[in-house]
Amino acid sequence: MNKKYYIWGIIALIFVVLVASILALFKAEEGWLGFWGGIIGSAIGVLGAFLVLKEQVNSDRDALKEQLNEEREQNRKQQIDNTFFNLLSMHNEQINSLKEEKKFEKIYKELRSKLINKMHKSCYSYLRNHKDIIPELNNLKLIYEEYINKHERKISGAYMPAYESYWKREHRKITFTWLNDPFLDCIADAVDAILLIEDIIDTIKDVEKTDSGIIDKFKYLENYGKAFEIERTEMWNTLYNRILEYQTNNFTLIDEDLRKAAVEDVLSRHYNEVGAYFRLFHRIIKYINDNLERPEELPIKNNYLGFLRATLNSKEMLVIFYNAAYTNRGAGLLKELQKTTFFGIEEDLKSSQHFNISDLFWEEDDLNKMLNQHEDNTVLSE
């Protein structure tokens, strides 16, 4: 019984003692004592029966309430389960259709191709933002000019008029034919190097101009330097090595804005085919997050994520990620994904459990986005 029943019992006991004391005080006759004793005893019996019955009713009510709560919770879980698998069935229909067309593999290849193009733009950004490049090129140009001025008088007299016409007056590449003149051979190469430097400087200065072969031109310039045994400065070596990186697949050299522009551009061209799928996928992840928020439900949540992930191959997972992480349309999905372990926990990612991390375009940055867990989200291995 709860506390209030004990209070009523104490009140009844005090009442009995009080009545008995009054009867004793006034020396009531034995008949009166029996009369009052019967009444009090009956009252106490009725009160006791009432309290016991009330306690039983309360106990039955609590048991019924608990049973209803359990049934309600069971129904909730059943409804969540049914809804999830219905959504998963819809998901499978859409993804299977896209699989037949190898749509995600095509998108991934286009993304890589687009990023290679962005590497050239990033190279131009680097060249135009680095103030030391043009002075360094001008210093190199001066070395070749000094070489020409020093050795041009050694050119055979038969070729001097043509040389002066091509270079001195018209400032253009020496293209006439000559034989057995080593000095003219070297001077022609020096002229080529100067013209190449001027072309590179013009390209850097003209913000509207682009040249997909700019990196190769720096390579040619480096080869001229080796041929003429020009001592390269530390500044040149640093700049040259950095420029060479833009001809690799080191996409980390691409800044965040160009990354997003590349992904947006590629995915926008395919959005008519994959837009509905992305929206459904977003809805599934949000449904899981909204309906399985309790800590004790985390194993179920991870199981659902595992079922969903099992329907996707690595390229499909990566395209989903890049849509979420690098497009405006996908920002909401990224927030939902970061509440989950859909891409795996840190150990899964390091061991390439669900996809090869070498296929990520920006490995460190992308992994950080995938592992951006909420502080209150306990991570369990699936």
TrEMBL record:
The membrane-spanning stretches of this chain are 6-26, 33-53
Which InterPro entries does this UniProt record tie to the protein?
Answer: PutAbiC
Q: Does the keyword Transmembrane apply?
A: yes
Fetch the Pfam families from UniProt: putAbiC
Keywords assigned by UniProt? Answer: Coiled coil, Membrane, Transmembrane, Transmembrane helix
Q: Which residues form a coiled coil?
A: 54-81
Is Transmembrane helix there in the keyword field? yes
Protein name per its UniProtKB record: Phage abortive infection protein
* Native organism: Enterococcus faecium EnGen0192
